[in-house]
Write a structure and sequence with these properties.
The structure holds two protein chains of two kinds.
Chain A lengths: L2 H27 L1 H28 L6 H14 L3 H32 L7 E5 L2 E5 L9 E4 L9 E5 L2 E4 L1 H4 L5 E3 L4 E2 L4 E2 L4 E5 L7 H11 L6 H32 L2 H13 L4 H20 L2 E3 L2 H9 L2 E5 H5 L5 E7 L1 H7 L3 H12 L6 H10 L8 E7 L3 E6 L2 E6 L1 H7 L3 H8 L7 E8 L2 E9 L6 H10 L4 E5 L4 H10 L4 E3 L4 H13 L6 E5 L5 H6 L2 E5 L5 H6 L2 E3 L5 H36 L5 H20 L5
Parallel strand pairs in A: 11-18, 11-20, 18-19, 20-21, 21-22
Antiparallel strand pairs in A: 1-2, 3-9, 4-7, 4-9, 5-6, 5-8, 10-22, 12-17, 13-14, 14-15, 15-16, 16-17
Chain B lengths: L1 E7 L4 H13 L3 E7 L4 E6 L4 H15 L4 E4 L1
Helix pairs in contact in B: 1-2
Classes of the chains: A alpha+beta, B alpha+beta.
Amino acid sequence: MTKKIKKMIIRIAIGAVLLAAGVLCTKLFGEWVGLAIYIAAYLVIGFDIVKNAFVNIAHGRVFDENFLMMIATVGAFACREYVEAVAVMLFYQIGECFQSYAVNKSRKSIRALMSIRPDFARVVRDGAEVEVDPTEVNIGETIIIKPGERVPLDGTIIEGASSIDTAAITGESMPRDVQAGDTVVSGCVNTSGVIKVSTTSNFAESTVSKVLTLVEEASSKKAKSEQFITVFARYYTPIVVISAVLLATVGTLVTGDFRTWIYRAMTFLLISCPCALVISIPLSFFGGIGGAGRKGILIKGGNYMDTLARVNTLVLDKTGTITKGNFALGEIEPSSYLQKEYGDGAEDELVRISALAESYSTHPIALSIIARYGREIDKSAVSEIKEIAGKGVSAEIEGKKISVGNKKLMLDVVEGADILELDSCSNVVAGGTLVYVAIGGRYAGHMHIVDEVKDNAAEALALCKKAGISDIVMLTGDNEKTAKAVADSVAIDKYLANLNPLDKVTSIETIMADEPGRVVAFVGDGINDAPVLSRADIGIAMGAMGSDAAIEAADVVIMTDDLAKLSEAKRIAIKTLRIVKENIVFALGIKLLILVLAAFGIANMWAAIFADVGVAFLAILNAMRALKA
Amino acid sequence: MKKTFILEDLDCAHCAQKIEDKVASFDGVSNCKVTFLTQKLVYDVEDDKDKEVEEKMRKFVKETEPDVTVKKA
């Protein structure tokens, strides 16, 4: 509880006692003694409001809530409704306290959510360990992280092994085992061993500060409903105040009953603050964004929350999104020629020779072959390396010309009976491709390169359908057969194959235009699909932990590569939007209802004060549900 | 340069809007943003106008929201 609230509670208590004394004294000693005590009570409770009202009036601000509050209560005094005047002020202040308390509490929960900022970094300088602010550490310095401490900066482990709790960044509760050579991401917590880390980023560029900035800045991108509230708030107060003035003047002129109409007008003024909406709507969005953040889903603004809730078409990239994206060597099939030459060693020879030929390449397929070979490669044995665009590579090894690549490349280099053997192997595995090898102009065999479908892909996509996605489309640069195999294995009904990056943009555009009312989300790994991410109604990047490009390009960033987070993100968005709608309908509904009732003299000031502060308090409580995503 | 302040005890959301609108209208200020939830006031200001803007901002906040204390972040 803040000091301000504590002080207010004391004032409210004294005021309440004085109010009771006033009621008693009026009965015992008459109206004038009572009035004196009422005025004392009024000033104890509301002197700050009266003061602010005068200050604001001096600055020409008439639609200020303090001023309106003062007018309303002084008006009540004028109508000789003393108890009501004091009580209204009393309840207004109680309401403000509750509101203040609720806002503080939600701020605290949000702050707790964002308390992933590391406090210090233990850096090794001149052989000694010093604790400094993370912002003071440069790239390439060595930091030491002890068990229980937060990783202050992104880096690579140079010594030690430990378990890292990545929950704060990824929402993943399973700790990750790390050792020398592995990277660690700032914001995560080191749980078991002491590790020495060489930093690869400064604090401003580190994952943790990017995540924090993103969440904080999210509130500046407003959803439609938020914009509506901003505009609404601008007109609401003046309209209510003008109606109050009309009510007082016209009512009095028509009926001649000054007291009744002034009272009704004063009741109007009490409902003139749009606070309930102005506070609770951004709070709901912030809560939703915060709650999602805790699960490793970063939503960059209320507007994206809006779109996410309405998404009905999901377009996914295949490689790295539906599949794991790390290629591995599957079956190895040497040709009859190679088997004759090497017998049982033919498989090993095929891998060895391909690994040598690919030794300078960084293509994922090349890396998977080199990984399978697993031994030191003597690059001096390789010469004349040529990349043949769209086909593969060729190289000179041990006096022979080696070609590694696709079928097109093979048809260029092999002849005769080898072509027949080559043609016979056209079987395709799910999510895989084939790499062919020729040695000295003879077909030597082929290897399966498999990109496995993510373990939970099928269930995750089924969950999306449950969460309101009607169509799921897969885009891929791979061939028809591979595309179909992957699509079938995860039960996707539509796929588009053989697409280059530019085709993907056109495909998204076609999908977005093919049916009215489509809201399209594109899901990719954010590495080379940035144009598609920005073209879709909403771009979702997956597996973004540590990838700056993805964090930049997407509207929603999912830190892990877990597809199940997609339906979760959608669910959170739907829930948040529902809360927002509830609050708008509830707050506006009650206010309008009381306004109408007050105009007809049915609702009194008590009801009005509930419509003001009571509704705000309830709306804030409701908004906080968004946080518990 | 970018300036960040904490508006302590900022309890009313449309007051946040008022402060944002006003500070944004000051000469030399761009990208002004008051975030009600984090109680942060952030704006970019031309270097030579920095002092003047800060003074005007503090004065305005004191006038409109006497409960709010402006603190350097």
